[in-house]
């Protein structure tokens, strides 16, 4: 029984950590970056699942031993005859569903929209599990200090989520009144969407960051897209490739559509730079934050080299125009090339540069290994994942 209570307590604490990580608190997210927070969230999520499964197993075995009942009979008694254990069982089932769909193999086979909806069930599971704690949790039942501790802990964590994920975005959208102003086709499956609104110069967005975007005609879907141009105070711009049902639908969005944005998020900004010499590496649609960063670095007149690898290089003309204006060196690679050979041949002074990389996981990993082999210090390497995640 003691082991069951202990794993339950640690599982509950790990759930609170999960809430804080997904709250995306600005002062935390800007310093650590969304990639690191997402990795920690994923790692701690599986610990939550295993701790709570252990809690269920040990508690059930403990009660069965205490009552002298067969294990199957004890399970039925706990679930159907003990107050609020049924809702705790439902919470456990929801968390298992979230855990299974978060496994890499499952995520590769799921639409982003489906994964996102299933993932939201974790909030319901946390509330149901907490109700179970309130009713029969040892700390709640036996001590006022324990009750105050857990109410405060969960209250602060849920309050952080409500403020950062609901309150601030709601106030910002009421203030800025975002709408689609224009849609420009870049290729057969890529469009650039210009978004206007009020007082956009007061929106704390930087080149390299992204928002979670919702469009009024399909408000239930949230899509993470990076800004594809440096925010200038009049417009926000995203460039979207048709990779799934949601992004395919955005190819046909009409001007005037109301837009809701949550963010900005991401630490993939010029603030991470440690020196004036910069290398920007983009792959595929990962070019969007790289193009925005190029614009910001160009205004600073930094020493810039850009490598853009893609089969169909969208935004290449824009990047070429910016590069010509500021004297940057732009290399567009459309054929096969290994990362080490590409960087070694095109950027011989890479060790003295800050390197920003955004692209598919395969390219990002190859570039990371290459930079390590070439002796580029880790403090000069900045990455943004471009993968199936939220």
Account of the 3D structure:
- By secondary structure, the chain is of the alpha/beta class.
- It folds into three domains: 164 residues, no CATH class; 89 residues, Elongation Factor Tu (Ef-tu), domain 3; 116 residues, Nucleotide-binding domain of ferredoxin-NADP reductase (FNR) module (Rossmann fold), CATH 3.40.50.
- Helix content is 54%, strand content 19%.
- It is built from 14 helices and eleven strands.
- The strands form three sheets. The chain has a five-stranded parallel sheet, sandwiched between helices. It has a three-stranded antiparallel sheet with strand order 1-2-5, with no helix packed on it.
- It is elongated and about 80 Å long.
- The model has no long low-confidence stretch (mean pLDDT 87).
Q: Sketch the major β-sheet.
A: 5 strands, parallel
- The chain-level structural class is alpha/beta
Q: Uncertain regions: pLDDT < 50 for 5+ in a row?
A: none
Name the helicity range: 40-55%
**How many strands in all?**
11
Name the beta content range.
Answer: 15-25%
Order of helices and strands: HHHHHHHHHEEEEEHEEHEHEHEHE
**So what's the oligomer here?**
single chain
Distance between the termini: 38 Å
Can you give the mean pLDDT? 87
Number of domains: 3
Shape: elongated
Question: What's the gyration radius in Å?
Answer: 24 Å
Strand-helix topology:
Blueprint: H1 2-23, H2 26-32, H3 34-67, H4 71-81, H5 85-102, H6 104-109, H7 112-136, H8 138-142, H9 144-176, E1 179-187, E2 190-196, E3 210-215, E4 218-226, E5 235-241, H10 245-249, E6 259-265, E7 277-283, H11 287-299, E8 303-309, H12 316-326, E9 329-333, H13 339-346, E10 354-359, H14 361-373, E11 381-385
Parallel strand pairs: 7-8, 7-10, 8-9, 10-11
Antiparallel strand pairs: 1-2, 2-5, 3-4, 3-6
Membrane topology: Multi-pass membrane protein
Domain FAD-binding FR-type: 173-271
Subcellular location: Membrane
